[in-house]
């Protein structure tokens, strides 16, 4: 079983690109806090999304906003030119539910996706929201 459900705050600017195949890719990172025995820890995770999910995230989310993420872990392994073995783990986003929606005055004209102001304006049903 490989399932990740997490609510966190976006800590980096979204990095969006379109591959030669026409698929949109969006990369970003999130952080969340957890309190264990009166000690608060902050965890940071890198995320990647593809296709319609990436387009949605690019259109509705921004740095500093909170999101609910449903996805899975994926690991990448490679070897550097110097022969050193490297690896990274990131969350592959399958669903994203913005908690802090973008305001109308923050519309980025380079994004074709509509921007909503409230969850009531969302194109998604209540069943799609993770929390």
Structure, briefly:
This protein is mostly beta strands and 131 residues long. The chain contains 1 helix and 6 strands; from the N terminus they run E-E-E-E-H-E-E.
What's the number of extended β-strand segments? 6
**Strand neighbour order, sheet with most strands:** 1-3-4-6-5
| H/E series | EEEEHEE
Structural domains: how many: 1
Tell me the span between the first and last alpha carbons. 21 Å
CATH architecture: Beta Barrel
Q: Share of helix among residues?
A: under 10%
Shape: globular
- Helix and strand content put the structural class at mainly beta
The total count of helices amounts to: 1
Radius of gyration: 16 Å
CATH C-level name: Mainly Beta
Mean pLDDT: 82
What does this protein structure show overall?
Residues 107-131 have low confidence and may be disordered. The chain has one helix spanning 51-60, and strands spanning 4-10, 15-18, 24-36, 39-50, 66-79, 85-98. The chain has one domain (4-120): OB fold (Dihydrolipoamide Acetyltransferase, E2P) (Beta Barrel). It is built from 1 helix and 6 strands. Strands 1-3-4-6-5 form a 5-stranded mixed β-barrel. A hairpin with a 5-residue loop joins strand 5 and strand 6 (85-98). With 131 residues, the protein is mostly beta strands.
